[in-house]
């Protein structure tokens, strides 16, 4: 029986690929086989064994043919018993080869179009405007020149036979009227404060002078004080024609006078080495605690000694400068003190055919005053 079942495998496999023919054929084989086995056990003898086997084979062949044809007609699954559908689903779930599943072509998932990146437009960098340096407004450009002259390292020309430092360059000796600023080399008494102030001038012949018919005119010797309390300049004394004597080199009184009054104002002097002119402004009383700075100025120029003579002013070389002194008081002048140590002196400038100003500036360092503030904060009173 087993050989018969296997010999008819072609019928089962070629039943149009239908799983229904396979199912019912298998059930029929199992049923027939069970009937024959039971019958053999009850009735079969060895003699008729081969005959019965042949009969069974023919019967099974007809049965399979009939079952196959019937299953071929049942193409609509709805006509099958529900029990058979359940069996089919169970077997289908247990084997992959029982059903030829259609190849599913996966639908390609569309690749999303990337959203263009928004590139931010670079904001142009703002070029920083460099901070401008503070501009110093100068009321009169000549002030800067005057301040520079006070700090110069030499005079505009050379005095013959130099003996002292003040004959080489501008100097500051006493920055304030305080007795503490009197230099240590001074031989006389030192008061707590000096209450008297006066200006002075000098006129020297310089090296290289060849003029014979030229004099030096000077006028308007002025002294100003910058108040510590008000921070304003005050003209404390002005001398149109300051009193002037003749002095002998290196530094000693020689004779009264030697000057000439000029019609355009002031005096004139003709220095000839070793003689020079030394003049003075009028003394004035001050409040020493209120002095922030002292400024002295005087106008000077070259004039002819003999108007009808040769004009040799272009070959003249004469030096002019101004300075100032503090004194303890008026009574001390030339009595308690034979001389004053001096506040200082300005630069010796060369007199020319045009008016120039000889000047001196001394800021009071005890109050923090400086040369620079004479330009920026408290411009010198050049127009007074």
Helix content: 10-25%
Mean pLDDT: 78
Number of separate helices: 7
The value of Rg in angstroms is 68 Å
Q: Give a quick account of the main beta sheet: strands, pairing sense, barrel closure.
A: 9 strands, antiparallel
- Distance from N terminus to C terminus (CA atoms, Å) equals 153 Å
Spans where pLDDT lies below 50 across 5 or more residues? 2-29, 69-108
Order of helices and strands: HHHHHHEEEEEEEEEEEEEEEH
**How much of the polypeptide forms β-strand, as a percent range?**
15-25%
Q: What spatial form do the alpha-carbon principal axes imply?
A: globular
- Structural class by helix and strand composition: alpha+beta
Number of strands: 15
Walkthrough of the structure:
The protein has 384 residues and is of the alpha+beta class. It has seven helices and 15 strands. It has helices spanning 2-7, 9-13, 19-43, 49-73, 82-94, 141-150, 373-376, and strands at residues 171-172, 196-205, 214-227, 233-239, 243-248, 252-256, 259-261, 267-269, 275-280, 284-285, 291-304, 318-327, 344-345, 349-350, 356-363. The strands form two sheets. Strands 1, 2, 5, 6, 9, 10, 12, 13 and 14 form a nine-stranded antiparallel sheet that branches. Strands 3, 4, 7, 8, 11 and 15 form a six-stranded antiparallel sheet that branches. Strand 3 and strand 4 form a beta hairpin. Mean pLDDT is 78; it is low at 2-29 and 69-108.
């Amino acid at each position: 029986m087993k050989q018969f079942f296997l010999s008819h495998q072609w019928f089962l496999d070629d039943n149009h690929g239908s799983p229904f023919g396979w199912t019912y054929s298998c059930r029929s084989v199992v049923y027939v086989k069970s009937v024959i086995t039971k019958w053999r056990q009850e009735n079969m003898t060895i003699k008729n064994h081969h005959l019965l086997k042949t009969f069974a084979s023919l019967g099974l062949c007809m049965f399979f043919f009939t079952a196959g044809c019937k299953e071929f007609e049942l193409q609509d699954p709805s006509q099958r018993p529900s029990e058979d559908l359940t069996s089919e689903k169970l077997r289908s779930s247990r084997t992959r080869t029982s059903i030829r599943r259609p190849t599913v072509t996966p639908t390609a998932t569309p690749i999303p179009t990337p959203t263009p990146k928004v590139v931010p437009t670079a904001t142009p960098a703002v070029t920083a405007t460099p901070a401008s340096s503070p501009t110093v407004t100068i009321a009169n450009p000549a002030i800067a020149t005057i301040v520079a002259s006070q700090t110069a390292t030499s005079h505009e020309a050379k005095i013959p036979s130099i003996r002292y430092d003040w004959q080489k360059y501008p100097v500051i000796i006493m920055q304030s009227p305080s007795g503490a600023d009197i230099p240590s080399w001074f031989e006389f008494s030192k008061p707590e404060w000096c209450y008297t102030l006066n200006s002075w001038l000098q006129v020297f012949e310089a090296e290289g002078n060849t003029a014979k018919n030229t004099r030096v005119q000077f006028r308007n010797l002025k002294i100003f004080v910058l108040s510590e309390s008000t921070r304003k300049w005050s003209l404390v004394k002005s001398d149109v024609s300051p009193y002037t004597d003749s002095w002998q080199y290196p530094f000693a009184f020689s004779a009264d006078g030697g000057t000439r009054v000029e019609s355009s104002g002031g005096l004139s002097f003709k220095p000839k080495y070793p003689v020079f002119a030394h003049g003075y402004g009028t003394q004035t009383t001050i409040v020493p605690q209120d002095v922030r700075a002292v400024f002295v100025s005087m106008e000077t120029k070259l004039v002819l000694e003999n108007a009808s003579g040769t004009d040799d002013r272009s070959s003249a070389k004469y030096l002019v400068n101004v300075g100032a002194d503090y004194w303890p008081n008026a009574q001390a002048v030339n009595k308690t003190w034979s001389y004053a140590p001096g506040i200082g002196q300005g630069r010796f400038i060369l007199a020319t055919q045009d008016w120039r100003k000889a000047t001196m500036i001394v800021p009071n360092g005890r109050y923090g005053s400086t040369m620079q503030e004479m330009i920026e904060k408290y411009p010198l009173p050049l127009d007074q």
